[in-house]
Design a protein that fits this description.
Blueprint lengths: L3 E8 L4 E8 L2 E5 L4 H12 L12 E6 L5 H7 L4 E8 L2 H8 L15 E5 L2 H6 L17 E6 L19 H8 L2 E11 L5 H10 L2 E11 L4 E11 L5
Parallel strand pairs: 4-5, 4-7, 5-6, 7-8
Antiparallel strand pairs: 1-2, 2-3, 8-10, 9-10
Helix pairs in contact: 1-2, 5-6
């Protein structure tokens, strides 16, 4: 997909260090704007507020896309979470966190609930021949209470053409196999809520919402907005 890089610079208007990820010449994320990445975790887990896991166990969560780590860190702030598997395609991104280069999320890899898995999230969701066991290589076929995804810019603007099939009814049905009954799929998007994609989600899930997440953008002097889609599977009878 291109050369990925982590940059640190001083933001002169605020006198703070800023961490930025670029893929080639394209900016992917910045520590200046993390509201929506945090809300991806909060909204996704909030949809499980009424869920009582069997046997009193905690919640098992997957995060697709490690990035700067804000979504994963927010998941770990939820006391109901028992385990977190973070799937990241690029070894370099995992290395940034293992080397503790990102002070805002420094405790992420030290938390015993966390495991970082290098792999292609979309291949694992499909169950390709080289990735047949799902998101946890230590427990093939394992199901989860929540899967939170932040990899592509949006369902229409993907980082690689091979990702596009995931955002179809067939691709989402393959994903839903990895969720427990009543489980939640949540997705970050840089685009406004997309009615067509909401219709696709409704083909697979029973409760579907698109949350517009707005935040101040001091660079433009106005507001910016992202979208978090939250979709639930059918709860147990």
């Amino acid at each position: 997909m291109g050369v990925i890089s982590l940059r640190r610079r001083l933001e002169p208007s605020r006198q703070v260090d800023v961490y930025e990820v670029k893929l080639g010449d394209e900016f992917l994320m910045s520590s200046l704007f993390t509201v929506a990445e945090i809300e991806l975790a909060r909204l996704g887990l909030a949809a499980l507020a009424d869920m009582t896991p069997e046997g009193g166990r905690g919640l098992d969560v997957v995060v697709g896309g490690l990035g700067l780590g804000y979504t994963a860190r927010t998941v770990l702030e939820e006391p109901r979470v028992a385990s977190l598997v973070v799937v990241e395609a690029l070894e370099e991104v995992i290395d940034w966190h293992e080397r503790r280069l990102l002070p805002d999320v420094d405790g992420l890899t030290a938390d015993p609930r966390t495991r970082l898995v290098q792999g292609d999230f979309f291949a694992l969701a499909r169950g390709d021949e080289d990735a047949p066991g799902g998101f946890d290589p230590q427990q093939p076929g394992r199901r989860f209470d929540a899967i939170l995804l932040d990899v592509d810019h949006s369902p229409r603007h993907v980082l690689h053409p091979s990702h596009a099939a995931f955002y179809t009814g067939s691709g989402l049905r393959q994903l839903a196999r990895h969720l427990r009954s009543g489980g939640v799929f949540a997705l970050w998007s840089d685009d406004p809520p997309d009615p067509d994609f909401l219709d696709v989600l409704r083909e697979v899930f029973v409760d579907v919402e698109a949350h517009a997440v707005s935040f101040p953008n001091f660079l433009t002097g106005g507001e910016s907005s992202n979208t978090v889609y939250v979709a639930s599977t059918k709860p147990p009878i």
